[in-house]
Amino acid sequence: MAIITKVCDEAAGIKTFTLEFKEPEIQKSFDYRPGQFVELTVFGVGEAPISITSSPVNKGYLELTVAAVGKVTRALHLRKEKDVAGLRGPYGNGFPFDEVKGKNILFVGGGIGAAPLRSLINQMFAYRDNFAKISILYGAREPGLLCFIDDLEGWGKTENSEVLLTVDAPDAKWRGNVGVVGSLLPKIDIDIKNTVAFICGPPIMIHFVLLDLLKMGFEEEQIITTMERRMECGVGKCGHCNIGKSYVCLDGPVFSYHQLRELGEDI
Ligand SMILES: Cc1cc2nc3c(=O)[nH]c(=O)nc-3n(C[C@H](O)[C@H](O)[C@H](O)COP(=O)(O)OP(=O)(O)OC[C@H]3O[C@@H](n4cnc5c(N)ncnc54)[C@H](O)[C@@H]3O)c2cc1C
Ligand code: FES
What we know:
Elements: E1 2-11, E2 14-21, H1 24-29, E3 37-42, E4 46-51, E5 62-67, H2 71-77, E6 84-91, E7 104-110, H3 115-126, E8 134-140, H4 149-156, E9 161-167, E10 177-178, E11 195-200, H5 203-216, E12 223-226, E13 242-243, E14 246-247, H6 248-251, E15 254-256, H7 257-262
Parallel strand pairs: 7-8, 7-11, 8-9, 9-10, 11-12
Antiparallel strand pairs: 1-2, 1-6, 2-5, 3-4, 3-6, 12-15, 13-14
């Protein structure tokens, strides 16, 4: 059982909820890796898998960024501070961290798909000296759908880091790039051989960014992404989320493109 301690409007139809476990002992011992998710219960309505968007470096609370798209998420959007929700987890494998130390890191995110990336980016910025250049490319359909504006501003001001934004459909105030997030790739200057790319977003975005990265010379092992599947149990019991012989809830949701190809999934 967790208490909602804060609700923020993140973007159009998207809210970020801060939660604390009711039992202080559980809150203290709850540890996770960026890229892992929880099963969130809105009591009387149901359960949905949601990525943890806060960084494990920030102890004492969890943040979940949620788009109101269906039964559970719409009901959650009606919840207020001091209301109670259920959380079980953390589940899934999470992103590699120690394994990519010393490398350039390229993040490519789309819309609310950046929620798990935010957790990893903040963890990396907490240990900034362990990584070479960090490039963050982020896009949304329109300016009102860009999430994590304060984080993006902070990341962009850090040495040896860059943030490039784009939208598909600008409004009158937009002065930045217009186009899909892949259109930002030619604007970055990195040594591809020493770079690992993390891509999160809608499947169509992942598909096209992946093609762009392969064309730029990235190897399959250098591309890490997350897979979304309709999940029920989250713990490898119901069989809803398999890709080949793997369950996304247990062996994923984070996979390298190489692993996905070996599983027969060509995204
Ligand atoms: C690992 C993981 C992490 C995730 N992280 C996040 C996150 O951080 N934030 C976030 O907002 N979402 C996240 N999601 C997505 C979220 O779990 C889904 O959108 C979930 O379905 C929402 O539950 P709901 O009850 O609100 O919506 P649902 O009622 O399940 O509906 C969601 C959408 O799916 C459609 N749908 C409903 N039933 C079916 C069906 N049987 N087959 C196909 N489509 C159907 C609906 O039309 C609607 O568009 C994540 C999903 C996974 C697997
Ligand atoms: S969600 Fe049940 S097996 Fe993965």
